[in-house]
Design a protein that fits this description.
single chain, mainly alpha, 85% helix
């Protein structure tokens, strides 16, 4: 395969991934809307999107594996294909999270709508923005933009923790709202997972563009800092 044909294959791989990304982003927006308005027809659209995402996942994986086997790429081309395989898996899981939310909405069909003290639309907007920005960083090969996505994850984690405290309190003190609160809790959990997948995508973009592995950097830094403190505490005084 000539370099021109190889580059065309890489471009086609990227184009398919972007189509899948559009479907995943649309699925999470629709799932959140189905929760807001309790519309089962929107849930059906989410289910169809999830099936299309699954089909694309298989196609992209196969195309990427074929390129690895036939071309044995090196350096940035190899990192690009590896990043595509990993982003592909994360987008499929974003589709799963959207389907999980819409399935939750189906179980709420016969329940009265409750005004719960959690801002799910804001959490959904932030998680969807993370997905959009991580994919934009992939389109533009922009590691700095990808880095900015990583810092957004803390906000979604914080909202999820606050929702957990609020909703478990509702379940404990207002028994008649417990089913709605439990469903809201599970929706928040799905949105937190969407944010985690966006973070993974951003880390894969950084790996592709810079060749730097930034996964688990926060926890690694925390362990290093703790080890340093322990070392200082155990150091004998003169």
């Amino acid at each position: 395969m000539t370099r021109i044909r190889f580059q065309r294959s890489l471009d086609e791989l990227k184009e398919k991934l972007l189509i899948m990304a559009g479907l995943a982003e649309q699925a999470i927006q629709r799932a959140t809307e189905s929760y807001r308005v309790r519309d089962l027809s929107i849930c059906d659209l989410v289910s169809r999107s999830e099936m299309a995402i699954n089909r694309l996942e298989r196609e992209i994986d196969q195309a990427a594996l074929d390129l690895l086997a036939m071309e044995q790429p090196m350096a940035i081309d190899l990192r690009f294909i590896l990043a595509v395989i990993k982003i592909n898996a994360d987008l499929e899981r974003v589709g799963d999270a959207a389907k999980s939310i819409s399935d939750r909405v189906r179980t709420m069909e016969s329940m009265a709508v409750a005004d719960l003290p959690v801002d799910i639309p804001r959490m959904a907007s932030l998680a969807a923005n993370m997905v959009r920005k991580s994919l934009q960083s992939f389109i533009e090969a922009d590691a700095e933009m990808a880095q900015s996505v990583l810092s957004m994850d803390d906000a979604v984690d914080g909202m999820n923790r606050a929702a957990h405290v609020t909703l478990t309190h509702v379940m404990a003190t207002e028994g008649h709202l417990a089913p709605q609160a439990l469903n809201a809790l599970m929706v928040c959990r799905s949105l937190e997972r969407v944010a985690d997948h966006a973070t993974n995508i951003a880390e894969d973009v950084i790996f592709w563009v810079k060749g730097a592995d930034v996964r688990h950097k926060g926890s690694v830094d925390a362990v290093a800092a703790q080890s340093l403190q322990t070392s200082k505490a155990e150091r004998p005084t003169s």
